[in-house]
């Protein structure tokens, strides 16, 4: 299970962004996960919660937006949902020049910082 | 302070960057890495041992690094070929990452080695997501595992540059449906080359070495559909919302 490594990579990047933005807490993190990314959202959620403990992300929620796998044939222009397990051969012309339009995403979309930055700043100074 | 920030960062960006750096470093010294993925017990070590011995016979300078959660058994087996071999213990981690691999190569990878075979942890799920800086990714599947492996592990098979079927000497005994297996591979990875091998009978032993040498010589590798995203997700500058 590599979801723990993925959770740790997410946390590391959000921690770095928190330092850059002077954020003291994180409310939520939005992820984009393609259905061909090889990530199990439930396992990721479980690992995320464990790995967030004692970090600036403690108590934050993880929202996963999934992206359907879609492909397009460069030869005949046919576009289709590849499904799972994916069918990546063009059903229209069996051409070999198929490109993936989406489905392998594994991206941090957005981070929402915890409220009350004024109080946080006062804490820092005091 | 703004409450939200659009990071738009690839989660595995750090691994992908390290992998690219390693690929460039290896290329600069005239070496390529070959990443071998399979489930446990697929016969990866057996076949690799034969390929390494053949490389030594032919005077091709190679080295091999093998990763496991525990035991040094594979390094002992591969070491019998007489080529430089290193065992990496991942301490429970189910896959290798580019930074880890790079650390293990430092001070070990012999200067003369032109091919570096990396035997990944036996697992068809997690290693698939991690680029190790390889120039050739090979997925192995034994006939005893069944024909539907490519459909069960589409990311692993879908990102392979080459597929090797192992233990084909057992095909009849386990009623291996070769046509079904090939159809399943082509479904997730149209156009990928599939080579039937047997370390026991010697069938196509040397195919892996030959393909790796061809890539080293600059021959283009098969680019899987899954590795061909139409629109790359570029890292965009931070956008803040208030």
TrEMBL record, chain A:
<keyword id="KW-0862">Zinc</keyword>
<dbReference type="InterPro" id="IPR000688">
    <property type="entry name" value="HypA/HybF"/>
</dbReference>
<dbReference type="GO" id="GO:0051604">
    <property type="term" value="P:protein maturation"/>
</dbReference>
<feature type="binding site">
    <location>
        <position position="90"/>
    </location>
    <ligand>
        <name>Zn(2+)</name>
    </ligand>
</feature>
<feature type="binding site">
    <location>
        <position position="2"/>
    </location>
    <ligand>
        <name>Ni(2+)</name>
    </ligand>
</feature>
<feature type="binding site">
    <location>
        <position position="93"/>
    </location>
    <ligand>
        <name>Zn(2+)</name>
    </ligand>
</feature>
<dbReference type="GO" id="GO:0016151">
    <property type="term" value="F:nickel cation binding"/>
</dbReference>
<feature type="binding site">
    <location>
        <position position="76"/>
    </location>
    <ligand>
        <name>Zn(2+)</name>
    </ligand>
</feature>
<dbReference type="Pfam" id="PF01155">
    <property type="entry name" value="HypA"/>
</dbReference>
<feature type="binding site">
    <location>
        <position position="73"/>
    </location>
    <ligand>
        <name>Zn(2+)</name>
    </ligand>
</feature>
<keyword id="KW-0533">Nickel</keyword>
<protein>
    <recommendedName>
        <fullName>Hydrogenase maturation factor HypA</fullName>
    </recommendedName>
</protein>
<keyword id="KW-0479">Metal-binding</keyword>
<dbReference type="GO" id="GO:0008270">
    <property type="term" value="F:zinc ion binding"/>
</dbReference>
<comment type="similarity">
    <text>Belongs to the HypA/HybF family.</text>
</comment>
<comment type="function">
    <text>Involved in the maturation of [NiFe] hydrogenases. Required for nickel insertion into the metal center of the hydrogenase.</text>
</comment>
TrEMBL record, chain B:
<feature type="domain" description="CobW/HypB/UreG nucleotide-binding">
    <location>
        <begin position="35"/>
        <end position="195"/>
    </location>
</feature>
<dbReference type="GO" id="GO:0051604">
    <property type="term" value="P:protein maturation"/>
</dbReference>
<dbReference type="Pfam" id="PF02492">
    <property type="entry name" value="cobW"/>
</dbReference>
<keyword id="KW-0547">Nucleotide-binding</keyword>
<keyword id="KW-0533">Nickel</keyword>
<keyword id="KW-0378">Hydrolase</keyword>
<keyword id="KW-0342">GTP-binding</keyword>
<comment type="similarity">
    <text>Belongs to the SIMIBI class G3E GTPase family. HypB/HupM subfamily.</text>
</comment>
<keyword id="KW-0862">Zinc</keyword>
<keyword id="KW-0479">Metal-binding</keyword>
<protein>
    <submittedName>
        <fullName>Hydrogenase nickel incorporation protein HypB</fullName>
    </submittedName>
</protein>
<dbReference type="InterPro" id="IPR003495">
    <property type="entry name" value="CobW/HypB/UreG_nucleotide-bd"/>
</dbReference>
<dbReference type="GO" id="GO:0016151">
    <property type="term" value="F:nickel cation binding"/>
</dbReference>
<dbReference type="GO" id="GO:0008270">
    <property type="term" value="F:zinc ion binding"/>
</dbReference>
<dbReference type="InterPro" id="IPR027417">
    <property type="entry name" value="P-loop_NTPase"/>
</dbReference>
<dbReference type="InterPro" id="IPR004392">
    <property type="entry name" value="Hyd_mat_HypB"/>
</dbReference>
<dbReference type="GO" id="GO:0003924">
    <property type="term" value="F:GTPase activity"/>
</dbReference>
<dbReference type="GO" id="GO:0005525">
    <property type="term" value="F:GTP binding"/>
</dbReference>
């Amino acid at each position: 299970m590599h979801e723990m490594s993925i959770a740790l990579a997410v946390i590391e990047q959000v921690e770095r962004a928190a330092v850059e933005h002077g954020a003291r807490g994180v409310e939520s993190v939005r992820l984009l996960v393609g259905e061909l990314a090889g990530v199990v959202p439930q396992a990721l959620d479980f690992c995320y919660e464990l790995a967030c403990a004692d970090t600036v992300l403690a108590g934050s929620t993880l929202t996963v937006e999934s992206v359907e796998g879609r492909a397009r044939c460069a030869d005949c222009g046919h576009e289709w949902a590849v499904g799972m397990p994916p069918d990546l051969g063009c059903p229209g012309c069996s051409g070999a020049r198929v490109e993936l339009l989406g489905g392998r995403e594994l991206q941090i979309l957005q981070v929402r910082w915890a409220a009350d930055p004024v109080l946080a700043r006062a804490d820092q100074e005091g | 302070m703004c409450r939200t920030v659009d990071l738009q960062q690839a989660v595995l960006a750090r691994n992908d960057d390290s992998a690219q750096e390693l690929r460039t470093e290896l290329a600069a010294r005239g070496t390529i890495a070959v990443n071998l993925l399979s489930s446990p017990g697929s016969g990866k070590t057996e076949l690799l041992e034969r390929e390494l011995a053949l490389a030594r016979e032919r005077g091709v300078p190679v080295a091999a690094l093998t990763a496991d959660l525990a035991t040094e058994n594979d390094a002992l087996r591969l070491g019998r070929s007489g080529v430089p071999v290193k065992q990496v213990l991942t301490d429970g981690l189910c896959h290798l990452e580019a930074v880890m691999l790079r650390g293990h190569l430092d001070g070990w990878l012999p200067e003369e080695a032109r091919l570096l075979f990396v035997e990944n942890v036996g697992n068809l799920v997690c290693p698939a997501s991690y680029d190790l800086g390889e120039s050739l990714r090979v997925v192995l599947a034994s006939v005893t595992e069944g024909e539907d492996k490519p459909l069960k592990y589409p990311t692993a098979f879908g990102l392979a540059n080459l597929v090797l079927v192992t233990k084909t000497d057992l095909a009849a005994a386990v009623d291996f449906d070769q046509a079904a297996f090939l159809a399943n591979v082509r479904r997730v990875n149209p156009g990928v080359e599939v080579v039937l091998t047997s370390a026991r009978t010697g069938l196509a032993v040397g195919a892996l070495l030959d393909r790796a040498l061809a890539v080293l010589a600059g021959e283009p590798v098969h680019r899987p559909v899954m590795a061909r995203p139409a629109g790359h997700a570029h890292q965009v500058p931070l956008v803040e919302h208030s």
